[in-house]
Amino acid sequence: MKYMILSYGSQRDYDAMSETGASAQDVAAIGDFLAKFTAELAESGELVETQGLTAPVLARRVRLRDGAQVVTDGPFAETEEVLAGYWIVECDGIDRATEIAARLNECPGPQPAAGTVIRPIADWAEDVEH
Fold first, then answer.
1. 0.85 exceeded by the pTM?
2. Number of helices and strands (H, E) in the chain?
3. Positive or negative, the Cα torsion across 45, 3, 96, 81?
4. pLDDT tens-digit profile of 29-64?
5. Where is the YCII-related domain (predicted)?
6. CA-CA-CA-CA torsion for 28, 31, 36, 37, nearest 10 degrees?
7. Domains of the chain by range and CATH?
8. How does 62-90 read in b/e, with b if 16+ C-beta sit within 10 Å?
9. Is beta strand 116-120 parallel, antiparallel or unpaired with respect to 60-65?
10. Which helix (H) or strand (E) element contains residue 1?
11. Structure confidence by residue, pLDDT tens digits, 76-108
């Protein structure tokens, strides 16, 4: 089964890691942890895909309001949690996906309050049969 592990943060988390909030050594430690974490998933054959996302200040939201497209540049004041990155893994079940996600709590640096979310990826062909 495939699962998406979603890592959440906030603009404050990104700000804490900015030039004034984190040393180059701190940023390198986080990068090293994530590289090792991802390499271990690849070696186990469980990694399907992973991507990190840029800061919310670089995001753009598109909505339909009263029939018109409305585009808003980030950050979005009403949004506390933002998607920071994701991993798609293929593993034996939700318990294994949870073990994988829990390892992200070992990452050095600020611990985002939002943490991680694990979502099964729908297999539409299989779901239609049930």
1. no
2. 4, 6
3. positive
4. 988 999 999 999 999 999 999 999 888 888 898 999
5. 1-124
6. 140
7. 2-122 (3.30.70.1060)
8. eeeeeeeeeeeebbeeeeebbebbbbbbe
9. unpaired
10. none
11. 777 778 888 999 999 999 999 999 999 998 988
